[in-house]
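Model it.
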Amino acid sequence: MIYDFLKKYGIHYERFDHPAVFTCEESKKLCFDMPGNSTKNLFLRDKDGKRHFLVIVGHEKRVDLKKLKLLLGLSKLSFASEDRLKKYLGVEPGSVTLLGLIHDTNHSVEVIIDEKLWDKNLQCHPLVNTATLVISREGIETFFKITGHIPKKINVPEK
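Modeled.
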């Protein structure tokens, strides 16, 4: 499905197959060097579960959720459940990816991308964690436009 979507809209990618990886640390150990910037994707929710966020940062960044919640004007910010992950992004844990936004047709997920990544080529899973796609910034921007998501580019706070 995702490959058909990317092809339909002329979003070019480079594909790298690898063993299943569930964390950035596993990815570093099991995967060979790939071009582009490795990302960490956090799927979060507010206190009431009415707002959902996909936070995209560099793989090395340890996000400070307390500072991020203040930056977003929230009283609480926590990881969303596996059920919410499946409902909104259509993926399993370990496969969280910005490409999951293809399933968010109601635009229920707010996208936050670390401003340090915005002008970079990004690595992202194609809805499964057994491959990585490298997509240019222009391709990522096209993807967001087509899916109707407007990413907020901020300096995501770090621990």
